[in-house]
TrEMBL record:
Domain of life, per lineage: Eukaryota
Name of protein: Trm112p-like protein
PANTHER family: MULTIFUNCTIONAL METHYLTRANSFERASE SUBUNIT TRM112-LIKE PROTEIN, UPF0315 PROTEIN-RELATED
Highest classification ranks of the organism: Eukaryota, Fungi, Fungi incertae sedis, Zoopagomycota, Kickxellomycotina
A Pfam family annotated for this UniProt entry: Trm112p
Amino acid sequence: MRLITHNMLKCHVRGCDDSSKNFPLEIQDAQLEQIEAEKNDAFLVRMFPRLEWNALVSTAKNLSINNLPEKIPENIEEDQALLEILHTVLLETNVKEGRMVCRGCGHIYAIKNSVPNMLLAEHEI
């Protein structure tokens, strides 16, 4: 699972409505790998406004990736160094195995072979 995908996932367990705790899901026991991806600055610039920046920064720090700026950068289309960092963090950093845990309800979403299992049991829907 690439970190760009993680930035869009939240807990959907019934009754887990506290958006301050059900997003972002905390990645634990992560087995990371770098997968080379074609660089596309235009894609990154288009996706940038859709990112939850604080969630991305906190997730990256949790995974010992400490090269993202704390504050939301401006004019990223002009900052080649930042575009390179975003490309690496969002598109080339892959969680191969691990789990995501909701800080609100404690539900665990397994990640196997780079695929997060977001399916819920019937009683959780």
